[in-house]
Design brief:
two-stranded antiparallel sheet, binds tricarbonodiimidic diamide, globular, alpha/beta, single chain, about 230 residues
């Protein structure tokens, strides 16, 4: 059993029964010209977490843990994108419209790909999800059950939208969830802070949070600073 120094108290997990879940680290949210920017957001905030995510992904792969990537992606005919989603806000381009990285939030388009720094490798799971949560209308739960997974470690964007929704879905399905604080980001720093606080409040009502260094230490991987120090 591995113990991570987390809030509100230590998070214990067994690597064989734990998956690293990376939510929506795709060009549509992180690069200019995608869905995030068309909603009016400053997308530059999100790329700051990429190095920390890379370090965790590398360590998790070395340890041999299961990796799950998600992409927020709609079918080209948008049959899985209800008006309640497509019509929200006042974006310059809506889901399915043609933007500089192809059709916004549509599967297979350049903007829908996971960023090169975190690209999946053969053997890793990639889940296309039409909603905010990773479980809604996807095969994720069946896949986790097949692999005897009971614990999920989360990274990705955005904290209070797809990450929080996915963690809440997971918690209701019985998974113990840890969110890595410096491996998740929001277009709204105050929303990130609130989301972290509300998830770990009331004795980890939704889940635990911890800095990625705490997970790396628990996995026996020193952070670059710790190695130098
Ligand atoms: N808008 C926003 O903050 N997020 C999303 O629309 N999707 C995800 O969080 N992935």
């Amino acid at each position: 059993m591995i113990h991570v120094q987390a809030q509100p108290f230590a998070y214990p997990f067994d690597l064989a029964h734990t998956a690293l879940v990376i939510i929506d680290m795709q060009r549509d949210f992180i690069e200019p010209g995608g869905f995030g920017q068309t909603l009016g957001n400053d997308v530059s905030l999100l790329s700051a977490i990429v190095p920390a995510c890379q370090a965790v992904l590398a360590a998790w792969r070395r340890a041999g843990g299961l990796v799950v990537h998600t992409r927020e992606a709609h079918r080209p005919d948008l049959s899985d994108c209800p008006p309640a989603k497509r019509d929200r806000g006042n974006p310059s381009l809506r889901i399915g419209d043609l933007g500089p990285m192809g059709r916004i939030l549509v599967a297979g388009e350049p903007g829908n790909q996971i960023i090169a720094e975190l690209a999946p490798v053969p053997g890793e799971v990639v889940i296309d999800k039409p909603g905010k949560g990773a479980f809604h209308a996807t095969p994720l739960q069946a896949l986790l059950q097949e692999q005897h997974i009971s614990h999920l470690v989360f990274m990705g964007v955005t904290t209070e939208v797809c990450v929080q929704t996915s963690m809440r879905e997971a918690n209701d399905r019985g998974y113990d969830c840890l969110l890595l604080e410096d491996c998740t980001e929001s277009y709204f720093p105050a929303f990130k802070a609130s989301a972290l606080e509300m998830m770990r409040a009331q004795g980890a009502i939704v889940g635990w949070t911890a800095p990625s260094a705490a997970l790396l230490q628990a996995l026996g991987v020193g952070t670059p600073q710790a190695v130098r120090g």
